[in-house]
Amino acid sequence: MRSNKHAEEPSLSNQVGELPKQYNPKIVEDEVKALWDREQTYEIVKRARSNGPKFYFLDGPPFPSSDTPHIGTCWNKVVKDTVIRYKRARGFNVRDQPGYDCHGLPIELAIEQEFGVKTKKDIQDFGLERFISECKRFAEGNSKSMTQTFQDLGVWMDWDRPYMTHDDDYIESDWWSLKRAWSKGLFEHGQRVVHWCPRCETVLSDYEVVLEYKMLRDPSIYVKFPIKGSESESVLIWTTTPWTLPSNVAIMVNPEFQYAKVRSDKGTFILAEARMKEVEKETGTHLELLEKFPGTKLEGLKYQSPLGTLVPAQASLKGARYVVLSKEHVTLEEGTGCVHTAPGHGEEDYDVGMRYALPVLMLVDDRGKFIEAAGKYANKSVRDTNTEIIEDLRSLGTLLHAGEIEHRSPVCWRCRTPLIIRATDQWLVRVAHLKDELIKEVDSTLWIPGWAGANQFKNWLQNLKDWVVSRQRFWGTPLPVWVCSSCGRHEVIGSKEELLRNAISTEDIPSLHIPWVDKIKLRCKCGGEMARISDVMVGWYDSGAASYACLGHPKYPELTSKWWPADFIVEGRDQISGWFFSLLKAGLVAMDRSPYKTVLMHGFVLDDAGREMHKSAGNFVTAQEVVQKFGRDIFRHYVLQSTLWEDLRFSWDAVKQYSGDLSTFWNTFVFASTYMSLDKFEPAKWTPTKLARSLRPEDRWLLARAHRTIKEVTLAMDEYKVHEAVRKLKAFLLEDLSHTYVRFIRRRTWTEKQTRDKLAAYATLYFALRSALIMLSPLLPFLTESLYQHMFRNAEQGHPQTVHLLDWPSYDDRWIDDSLEGQMDAARAVLSALAVARMEKNLKQRQPVRQIVVATSSELTRKALKTYSSLMLEQANTRFLRSITKTNAARYETASKAQRFAKAEFADGTVYIDLKLTQKELADGLARDAVRRLQQMRKEMDLKVDSYVHTYVLAPSRKSASLLNSKRGYIAHEIRAKKLIITTEEMDVSAPYYTKIWQIDEENYQFSLCESSLVKTKA
Ligand SMILES: [Zn+2]
Ligand SMILES: [Zn+2]
Description:
Blueprint: H1 25-39, H2 41-48, E1 54-56, H3 71-89, E2 93-95, E3 99-100, H4 105-115, H5 120-126, H6 128-152, E4 163-164, H7 168-183, E5 187-197, E6 202-204, H8 206-209, E7 213-227, E8 230-239, E9 250-253, E10 258-264, E11 267-272, H9 276-283, E12 288-294, H10 312-315, E13 322-325, E14 338-341, H11 347-355, H12 386-396, E15 399-410, E16 420-429, H13 435-443, E17 446-448, H14 450-462, E18 467-468, E19 470-471, E20 481-484, E21 490-492, H15 496-502, E22 522-523, E23 529-532, E24 536-537, H16 539-544, H17 546-549, H18 557-563, E25 569-572, H19 579-591, E26 598-602, E27 605-606, H20 623-629, H21 632-640, E28 648-649, H22 652-678, H23 697-718, H24 722-750, H25 756-776, H26 781-792, H27 818-840, E29 849-856, H28 859-867, H29 869-876, E30 878-884, H30 890-893, H31 895-898, E31 901-906, E32 909-914, H32 919-940, E33 949-954, H33 958-965, H34 968-975, E34 977-983, E35 994-1000, E36 1003-1011, H35 1012-1018
Parallel strand pairs: 1-2, 3-4, 8-11, 9-13, 17-26, 25-26, 27-28, 29-30, 33-34
Antiparallel strand pairs: 5-6, 5-16, 7-8, 7-15, 9-14, 10-11, 10-12, 16-18, 19-24, 20-21, 20-23, 22-23, 29-32, 31-32, 33-36, 35-36
Helix pairs in contact: 1-26, 4-6, 7-19, 13-14, 20-21, 21-22, 22-24, 23-24, 23-25, 23-27, 24-25, 25-26, 27-28, 32-34
C-alpha cells in the first residue's frame, strides 16, 4: 500500500485537522479524483469488504446507442452508486458489475446510416463480417464513453469488467437457457401473428409497438360479399385495410346480436340491426328492413370473394369463405357487425381461424410486398395497393361506399415506417401458462414503491403471452437452433464446446456471431447435414438473462451459488414492461424462480415543463453540463433529493438553489475544524460519554437529534428511500447544526481556557459532524472525502485512508430524548418570536435588554424555558427571563405600560421585551456592535484565529467613548487585543494599521487594527 501524500503525515496526537475556508467544488473534486486514482481507493474499499455478507446488485444494462448517456441514466447510476456505497459502509461484500445491452436494431440502423445501406440485401452486399464488426465497434465505443461519464460522476462500479451482452461467454449463457427451455418443452417454433416493420424486415415486440404512433390517413370502405347461390344479396363489411381483402378467408358475426336483412337501391345486405342507422348515415344509403334473425342463423353461410378471381391464391382456396361466430371479437362500436377475417393479418382473426381450422392465407413477404400468388398486386407494397383494390371493387360492383379515416397507428419506433400485422414463423419461449407463477413471484418480491409491483407490474402480467424471441436481423445472439435439411429435425445447442464437438468440420470460429457461427454445420442422426436457422434473439432476452448470464452460468457454478439471485435492482418506470418483466420471465424459465429479491422503481427526468428531453426538441440537458457549471456532488445532491419514483422536472434554478446547501454543509464543518484544530482537540480522548456530566441541555439535545437522525437515515437507506435520507441529513445539518447548535456554542468555543464545558461542546459537535459525514459519504462522495482528508483523518483510529472505509455510524436509543427535542422546538419558537418583536421596534439582536417576559399557558414552553434557562438568557440577550400565565399578562398590555414593551405572538403565547435601556445595556450593546465590526476587520485582514492585535478606537463623543471603555475588558478579550485604546483624539494609525470607518447608531467610529507581532517588528 502506498502512503498518502495528499494529506499531511498523520501525527501521533490524533487531533482534528484544519479545513480550507471556502468550498470550491472544482478544486475539491479534482483533488479527490486525483487522490482516488493515485491510491486506487475503489479497489481498496472493495477489497476491505470482501469478507462481508454478500449483496448482489444487478445493473440494468443501458443501450449504447449514443456516446452521451441521458441525464436520466446518470440519475439512475448515481442512485445505484449511493446504494452500493451505503451497503459497503454497512460491511457488505457488494457485487457491483455494470453492464451494457449491446445487441439490437438501433445499432444496426446506426451502422446502416453511417455507411448508407438501406435494406437487408444491401447489408449482405456490404458484407456480414464487416457489418457485424462495425456494430461491435460502435457498441463498444459508445460503452466506453458512457463509462467515462459515469466514472466522472463518482460512480464506483467494476468498470474494468462490465458484462457486455455480445461477449461469447454471455451468448453461451443465453444458449444454455434456451436449451434448458427446449428440454422442458418451453422453447418452440410456430406461427404467430406479429407486428412487422417492412423496412427493418423484422418482428417487433408488443412493448416496442406501443412506443411510437403516427396519425395516418387510411381508406374507410364498405364492401359487399355476395352470398353464394343468391348473388343479388350480400354480407356487408367495413374495413380500413383494403390491402388485407386478398387474404380474406371468412366473415365473423356475433351469435348474440340481432342481424337484419335490408333492402336499398344498391342491393340487399345483411348487417347487424344495431348498426343500421350509422351505416345509413356514413354511406348515404337508405336501408329498408326486410327481416330480423339472430347471428347464429348465419353460421356456415357461404359467400364469394368481393375481388372475384383477381387473386389466384384466394380463388383456389378450399375450406374457406363462410360465416363464422365470435362473441369476443365482434362488437357494435364500429362497422357493420360483420367482420372481414384474414387470419394472416390479425391476431383475433388468427384465433378464430384456428378454432374453425381455416387456412392462413399469407400473400405478403418480409418487405411488405405482395407475392406472385397475389396476382395483379404482386411486387407492390401493400399500403400502396389500397387505391387499386378500391377501384377493382368498384368495377366489380362490390363496393358500397369509400371514404377516409384519420387514426393513430403504430409505426416502427426506430424508422417510423407504418407497421403491418402478419402471420410469420417465429421461435417462442412459452410462458403464457406460467402467469400464476409469475404473479406469485411478484408477491414474494419487495417492490419500492409497493404500488409499482402490486398494481402496475401485476396488471402488466395479466396480458402475459408467449414470448416471441426470434428476430430476423443480424446483430444479435444467434438462435442456437440447427435444422436438418434431410429430415427436418431441430437441435438446440447449449454451448460453444457442444457446438464444436458436434461440428462436421473441426475449424474454430473467432466469434459466436453471424456470419461465423453459420459456418458450423452439424451431422444429423439421419446422416443429413444440419445448418443453423437464420434468426437472432430479441435483445430483451439478452438483458433478461443478465441475472445468471453475467455470472457466466452454468460454466462457473461456484459464482452462481455464491451470488444468485440478485438482492437488488433499480430502474426507471418504463421497465415495468421492459427489463423487470424480461428478467422475471428469463429467470423463471432458466432458473425456476424470480432472479431478484428487491426492485426499486424510479421516475424520468423531464424538462421544467414536464416534457421528455430529446436532442431534437432542443430541451436536452446533459449531466456533464450540470457538472461543468456546478460540480459533481451538486448534480448528485440535486437528483438524489427528488422523490425517487416521481418524475424529476429539471430546472437550472433549482440546481442553483440546492448548490447552496453544500456550501452551508462545508461552512459548518469549517467552523468546527477551525476551533478544534486551534485547541488541538482530540476526539478520541473526549467523547460525549466521557464528558456526560459536563454536557449542557443543548448538548444533550443535539446528541438526541444526532442519534435520531442516524436511526432515521439508516431506516430510509435500508428501505432504499434515498431521497428521505437526503432530506433528513439536510435538515440535521442545516436546521439543527448550522442554524441552531453552532450559534448556541459560539461563545463557548471562543473562550481561551480549556474547560470541560468547551470540551463538551466540541465532543458533541464532533460526534454529530462525524456521523453526518459518514452518512453523507454515499451521497456526496467527493465533498465528504475532502472533509475527511483535511479534518477527520488524523483524528481517526488508525487513520483509514478514505472516508469510504469508515463503518456506518450506529445509534443508541438511550440518547434519543423526545422530551428534550420537544422542548427545544418550544424554545426555538420563543426565540423566533423574540426576533420578530425586536425587528418591529428596530431593536438589534446584539442590543442586550434588561428583561423579557413570556406569557404562556403551555406546560411544554414553561418546561423548555426552565430546562434551557441559561441558553435562553444568552440567546435572548437579556439579564432576566421569566414566564407568566396568560392571565397575568394583562399589565403588559395596558396603555401606560404597553409603550415600554415590544411584543410578538407565537403559537403558545406572547413574548414581551422591556425596551427601557439602562447605561449597562447601552454599553453592552455598543460594545457588541464594536466587536462585531472589529471581528469583521480581522477577517478582512485574513488574521489567524489565535493571533493578537493592537487596536485604536476613535469614538465620536465622550459619552460613547466612556460607554465603550466601561466594556474594554470584554472587547479586548473578544477581539484578542493585546493593546486597546478607546479615545476621542486623533492618533497616528498609518501602516501597518488597517483602518475603517463604521457607522453605529448613526454616528461614525474609526477602528484601526494591526497584528501585534508587526508592531513589535516595527519597534
Ligand atoms: Zn423499422
Ligand atoms: Zn436429419
